[in-house]
Design brief:
single chain, 332 residues, mainly alpha, two-stranded antiparallel ribbon, two-stranded antiparallel sheet, 4 strands, 2% strand, elongated
Length: 332
Amino acid sequence: MSSLGAGVVLVSIVLITMCLQVALHPFIKKITNSYLFWLFIAIICLVYFIMFRYVLDFKALVTVFSAREDLEKLKEIVNSNYPQMVASGDFKNASSLYFGFCLSKIFITDFCPFFFVASLFSLILQPSRKIASYLAGPQLLAALLTLFVSIFPGDDGNAKLTFEYIFMGNDPYRLKYAMHVLSICISLWVLLNTPNIKMKNWIYTGIVCVVFFAYITIVRYATSLSKIETDSFAFNGIIVECTGIVESDWLKNTLPAVQRITDAKQINGVFAGFGEQLGNIPWYYKEVITILLLAMLASAIVWLNWGVQHLSPYKVPNIKAKRPFWVGYYKI
């Protein structure tokens, strides 16, 4: 099956799963509203994330940092991730990019992993799920956008119907499919099990987004304070995969190559395609536009959640029910 066909199937699975969540919610909401249910789900997902992504990310960071003075070993590491840059003689920049890439994974400066991990911790630490409900809008939006954009042939075009791709992903993009699907399911179920949404929830959703961008800005600045440079190695902090607050996220051929495919090549920065649509303006203006657009779309999810709860009660024809469908469906 072609990567396009695999992408269509994988995205269809996500949409069908979402429809099933919505359809089954009235029948299992007592279970999905239980703190023990969320505690179990969150712990399992967090362990999964740590074992199959975070530990390996940390190992990659230690490996490249340990090899910073071993030219041959460093070349072997960097060449497998930036073959085109190394071939063109830009080895020092390639080593700096890869080290920054590893750092971004460790500090989780990418939007989707940050909200995924934050939601898991909030579900574990807060039985009421209030913070999780504020995270759910941006979390659902980002995961859906990422899957729809990246699962189809584009920058990498490597969607495959294999156990490894679905549950583990390709190095260095581990859990690319699984994490986003889990994020979609968790955020949707949190929204379905969040009663009495008020318009002020939009403000709280905006606050968590501000906190996120403040966090990655601080991390980006803090990692740039310690500069290390040798003849073959340069460290300039996180300069890639930082949710658009760095220029590399808007450029082409700046991310590590997807491994184990026939023609390994660097892929574009996360916002490179969208940046082209915005025209020839400085990348930091594009970042402002992107943040505002994401805020609008995330708030639209909150408004939709709020609006559904205010629909007039409706009773499904020919089905005996103690109370109208929408009331019984959405209220806990």
